[in-house]
Amino acid sequence: MTDIQLLPGLRELVDSIDRQKGAVVILGATDTGKTMLAFYLSWELQLRGRKVAIISADLGQSAFGLPATLGMAVLNNITISYQANRGPISIKNTKPHSIYFIGSTSPLGHLLQTAAGLKKLSEKAQGEGAEVLIIDTSGYVEGGAAWELKFHKIELVNARHIVAIQKEKELEDILTPHEHRRCRTIHRLKVYEGIRPRSYEQRREYRREKFSEYFKRAIIKIIPLSKVRLINPVNINKKNGSGSPYKRLLVGLNDDENITIGLGIIEDLGFKELHLLTPVEELKKVKIVRFGAIRLDEGWYDEKIS
User: What is the CB neighbour count within 10 angstroms for residue 50?
Assistant: First the structure.
């Protein structure tokens, strides 16, 4: 693969962001190199002495953190791994500073939660003193709902730069409302021809590996329902009884600010207690349990709730 640093327009893009710091939203369809570009920008801006934060907003293929969540990391000391002739390829040994549970591997049907989570994490990044916030978005770019989501993401973080990676002009409808605005700069890049598309099976296996690694040290823990508030957006009716309607449901364990401490899998839900499989050691800070819209089977594959 050709070194990403040699691709046209990237040096100018880094220069522009370095001059006018702020939030950078990267747009593109699936398999267009958004994550690679996010890593590259993070690498170059750190080399210039900038404090950089990155948000992985791809619910199904999170660059770091966990599927079904948004993750924010504050990068220090060039925490991007680099391979000769490939450029920056991953965040090395970096754990998210903060995560926000959405509960789905797709933003479709969860637009409001995704936008709210992005806003919260961007505020966290600002609070940590990030000069540049790079947002790696999902490949959901087609249709009216996608347009609305991308528009409001850009507005909520007050993006200074919009980077559009496109094959032809498939992103122009999203970009049009931001043309000629003094508070925005749009950068258009071509898709790198060397990118290898990933199949549905490869993407599903990636999520399985992430969940399997996260839950490998999980144990059953009990949370008294008197100590937490349940948020049930998938409308599973608790009054119909306990147990089976919730079995293997993925949940977010959130603090009082609704920032996610960790994840759990429901083993049983009674009228007084919640039995969870979770690696979270300390549950005292859990104040909100947010139900997701997917279950994990025994092999750690996710299944959407119908």
Answer: 17
Q: Look-up: residue for tokens 């770091």? A: 64
Return d(Cα 230, Cα 239) in angstroms, integer.
13
Stated pTM of the model: 0.89
Query: In 10 A of CB 107, how many CB atoms?
Result: 25
pLDDT digits (tens, 9 = 90+) for 147-162: 999 999 999 999 999 9
Task: Give 297's pLDDT tier (boundaries 50, 70, 90).
Answer: very high
Phi, psi of 202 (to 5 degrees): -65, -40
Nearest Cα residue to 139 out of 102, 178, 179, 105 = 105
Rounded Cα distance between 87 and 143, Å, is 33
Domains defined along the chain, listed by start: 4-194 (3.40.50.300), 211-304 (2.40.30.330)
3-state secondary structure of 31: coil
- For residues 43-62, average pLDDT: 92
